[in-house]
Amino acid sequence: MFQLCDENLDERTLAEGALELNLAINPDTEIHWAKHKLQQMCQEAEQVLVHEPNGELRLERLIQLFYVEWGYCGDVNTYFNSENAFIEHVLKEKKGIPVTLGAVFLYLCQYMGFPVSAINFPTQLVLQIEWPNKKTQYFNPFDGQYLSQHLMTAWLIGYGGPLATIQPSHLEKVDNSTLLGRLLAVIKTACIREKNFSFALKCSDLALTMVPDDPFEIRDRGLIYQQLHCNDAAKNDLEYFIEQCPNDPSVLLMKEQVQLLLEQHPTVLH
């Protein structure tokens, strides 16, 4: 079973880890096709870049190839669609969200040996480019554009309030487990919005492999169980949350949900 706490995750690329996560949620994920497609893209990129004279120009050519000639772009119309969080869908439709587009673009960069990595920026996946003896650059995988500190600060203000500023921790490299945890949260939220509660339940169970006793994740799982009419399991999870977090603002609502469950006939979870 895929686990976010797997120590071997950082031995794989982010795209490979995301594919394994996708497969754990949706068994119909065409993981072998996706891996073959990624390799095919690497080989094509290598042929296109072979005549570029230096690393920086090679990276600029790759950006042109990926975002213009191949046509990968951010999905601005259906951004929150859960399919955008699945690498296979991104490869087929050539659109996605920052973390999935970034995972694919980063896969190409790592194959080509470019000094590109993901950083711990709070608002979305941001890529960092570190050429020797050059100022560090930041890159938005959603639209293929370089980022200024002014824009990154504006993002933070929108996310954390008017006093938010870029902290050194925001620019530190981030491991795959953390990024995949963020991706998992995105998928769970999208699946709940789309009423795909079976996939949402898989997401919640995967999150709990990292922190098994997280009361907030257990609360969310309880609400998902409730939608799946697994009343006993839902009641147990919600009561656990109420016991662990008695002062949380959502406790009153959770108590109301437990009362509703007690008034319904229990179902057996197979």
UniProtKB/TrEMBL annotation:
Residues 34-184 form the Protein SirB1 N-terminal domain. Pfam families: TPR_9 (PF13371), Transglut_core2 (PF13369). Transmembrane segments: none annotated. It comes from the Bacteria. InterPro entries: SirB1_N (IPR032698), TPR-like_helical_dom_sf (IPR011990). Belongs to the UPF0162 family. This is Predicted transcriptional regulator. It comes from Aliivibrio fischeri (strain ATCC 700601 / ES114) (Vibrio fischeri).
